[in-house]
């Protein structure tokens, strides 16, 4: 078969993306046992240059976010597809790649599941984040490969159940192609960032991601139940919590996505209706006739637990938070802070547009809110820079935003403050 990469011309790339149909060395065999993994480790240790890394999860099908396929590609080693079910410990591969730059797309999505396998980069290049900083309007992998390199990736298997075994050949082809051009994309984006004078910004961001500790477990994850805003009373909120926790236990035991055990909509409905017994619960949407008596009993038991809680043990309407209140409340609570925030937002928006990058990449909205709610006593650029650094802003962000935020904070008349 003729490789599209050999026949594409610049005119073709401009006119229409060239479909990328097959990996250049074909689909590699899946590495699924320790002996085969040793060969992959040796090959990648002997390779050269950056290593492209990707992972496929079974979100929406299995409990948690663990990886069910890991893809790598490196010059001199080719492409490897590793099955973490058969090879759950990739620490030897990690050791072989120490000091090698990893190239990932949306690194923060894949790093947690790779860390579970014993892998974590010492340095990385995130092609999605690079695209954001470079001002590309679409930063998905397919869009970036198309815009930057002129090739069209297949998009049909991104949301399949990657825990399926054996994995179908079309899925493996898709997975291999995800890392096929990742290093090429990295090189092109590095040059683009250098041309725009943004490469140092990107390198600081990549270093921060690589050095970041694993994310801490979310406090009160049940509060993220979709539709939670409809639930107002503490007793109802208690029902949401108890049902969410019961669902989470069941999902973990069965190794299925919680949404496949019980939907968020059903949890919220039960909280609002507060069914007194199993018969009433079964009549609610989401608890229909297909649900067995044993399941209904466990959900009703959760509702009953919430109903029986003393008032002091019921959850508060909002989660504990050490930051400023929601901005919509600022005008009433602190009009001066609201004025500072308005001025700061306008300044950040203007600079982000001038630099052609998203506002949240220039400086996070939470950082802006915090410095506006509790500004330093000395509102000079130096004092603001110190405050931004303490809040986790990178040096490039501090350098660009501290002067304009200092001006915004100082713009509020003393009488208002």
UniProtKB/TrEMBL annotation:
Superkingdom is Bacteria
Note the SMART domains from the entry: 35EXOc, HRDC
Taking every annotated instance into account, which residue ranges of this chain make up the domain HRDC? 233-313
User: Which BP terms does GO give this entry?
Assistant: nucleobase-containing compound metabolic process
Q: Which Gene3D superfamilies match?
A: HRDC domain, Ribonuclease H-like superfamily/Ribonuclease H
InterPro entries documented for this protein: 3'-5'_exonuclease_dom, Exo_C, HRDC-like_sf, HRDC_dom, HRDC_dom_sf, RNase_D-like, RNaseH-like_sf, RNaseH_sf
Q: Where is this region: Disordered?
A: 1-25, 309-332
Name any one GO molecular function: ribonuclease III activity
Catalytic class of the enzyme: hydrolase
Q: What is its EC number?
A: 3.1.26.3
Q: Which UniProt keywords apply?
A: Hydrolase
Supply the PANTHER family for this chain.
Answer: RIBONUCLEASE D
For this entry, the protein name equals Ribonuclease D
